[in-house]
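Late entry, evening session. Most of the bench is empty. Finally got around to the prediction I had been postponing all week. Sequence below, unchanged from the version circulated by S.P.
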Amino acid sequence: MWTVYRWKDIHLQGRGKPAREPKPHAKKLEEEIKRLKQSNRTLDLDFLKGALQRVKARRQQKSATGTLTQLARRFISKAGESLASVK
């Protein structure tokens, strides 16, 4: 994470002016921001993982239902063909 202090260190190198250290309060806030961003990423990933699992489950249900429907249609059409041939 880039901070003003790091930027200042980079740009003041070789000029003989040491950059001041960030205040302890600023360091704590940076750490808290970093922790919150990480937990937010974790929540996002958990949400997406759950959503993908639900989509996968729905697709599996639809494909299973679709397979049964196709089998039923074939059976009915074959049964209709055999009844038509009996006439």
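Two things to note before I forget:
Residues 26-86 form one domain.
The chain has a mean pLDDT of 77.
Will write this up properly tomorrow.
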